[in-house]
């Protein structure tokens, strides 16, 4: 008992001496809770960080941040931020849904936002993305760029969000070329599957050996290895989540962006201006929530026909003429 | 340099305390290096983990996980086996808990579901330890290697089941439906009124964990099986010569160990999350190794070490919350230093202490 008792006594002594001054001051600055991947995951969370940075630059407001180490911390962090008066409190990632719901009930006057999941509470803004629409464009472009007729897909884990991406990719590829052969592989079944560039490179090399010459990554940090291996082999890669064109200029066909940064920025900005609206926002190509990047690094790779095909598909999806199958709500992928 | 050379209070009290002090000293230097005040950091850490009801609640919640996984590793230690598969055994144990809760929660109250869930968790965890145990006992395949491999197999199995078989339709999150009241262990807050744990999810599993501690003590030190386990661990050749059956001891020990790991899922699945989800074990199985090492494979030591690690988890979260400069990676560094000093370097101060505490005895021995 020595250890525990001594430490309790020490803690009490600290209080008695009154050194402990943990302020509970209120602050109207926004706060954000990143998911377990961490804000430098080179992917999903980092995209949210871009939104935070942009808001900081434009408003000089201070944004409080917290990175989860495990999901059990989520509710604590959200409550801490809400009780200190931070508005809004933004949670990144579907894992935090139940915590956001509980915190939103406890603080009915505080605005919350969550990315990638719907939380049905009157003070929560939910941002969800149609990843399948962005993936559709990626498949379309990959099928037009390939010389061999075989394209690849390296995902992180075999979970719904990655499957949705894979399905959109396959549909897009098949829409532009009937005989396309799509190889797919997942990096693993543990969280390391999204943080293992060596494994990503191995999988990419094996797909290249099977004839793939355009490979998309949907695997977070693992994808960095995919793009590296693809560049080393002289093939083409496709980036996701944030703009990865600059990683290997001239070797990355395009990047499919999921505008988490935009969602985070919007929620901060609307809250600062007093126009925060709870509810569900479904962001696809039409809403600018998903897009593909054309910049100095890849403009030589994207030909005119590819550009017009992508533009045509974007319009068709936005107007509802093409409905991209969503494995989460529509069931198994038709391909 | 055996334990017998030192008074018990030195062996079980002073040495862990010195190790801990050394770990915190080095951690303090690291905190200083990144430009924060180490005293303030300790203050936040202590306040965050023990300073208020909810902090205590979270500390005990994490400690519950560590008690189960620490006991699991400790039992295997006594037979000279190194069970690194706590992670996978707990993961599959979660399947046992979830099946019990999903089947019963709508029909019966929690106290009917609980024993079924406890048995389910222990059976599933034990089953996951059985094949490595059998391979070790019969084929000599090292249990360290096979249990690590079984952790990966457990991950793949659970992802497959949660995505394809047990998932709630139309959900992004690979998880089962949320259990009804009949599948939820009561929180300690609902069971008593003299201490308020706030919203911390500390629940009845803590009591189950403490009961498990007593049972492990009884089995290891007060039964014939325990005697066989300890004998086998101390000297396998002598144990076999004395007529003990190595195959039986290895398999039974690993089954107990796996069962204890599996029961960790009670706390997370039935006690807190109320649904089965991917990656709920999140490293508790591995930290159990450090807890068992630090607790000297004795239930009392394990409870204390588990509380310490619970404090590091909870206080660490508060620390990185209050001090953005101390990131969550820094917390991992501090935890790593504690494990290094308490586990790997546990004999660092022993030679010096032996020198301090033995001279008074030497004349007595000579006189004798």
From TrEMBL, chain A:
Signal peptide: none annotated. Keywords: Cell membrane, Lipoprotein, Membrane, Signal. One of its GO terms (cellular component) is plasma membrane. It is found in: Cell membrane. Residues 37-317 form the ABC transporter substrate-binding protein PnrA-like domain. It is a lipid-anchor. Its main location: membrane. Belongs to the BMP lipoprotein family. This is BMP family ABC transporter substrate-binding protein. It comes from Roseibium limicola.
TrEMBL record, chain B:
InterPro entries: ABC_transp_permease. Pfam families: BPD_transp_2. One of its GO terms (molecular function) is transmembrane transporter activity. It is a multi-pass membrane protein. The chain crosses the membrane at residues 12-35, 55-78, 90-108, 114-135, 142-163, 200-220, 232-256, 276-293, 300-317, 329-349. One of its GO terms (cellular component) is plasma membrane. Keywords: Cell membrane, Membrane, Transmembrane, Transmembrane helix. It is found in: Cell membrane. CDD domains: TM_PBP1_transp_TpRbsC_like (cd06580). This is ABC transporter permease. The lineage of its organism: Bacteria, Pseudomonadati, Pseudomonadota, Alphaproteobacteria, Hyphomicrobiales.
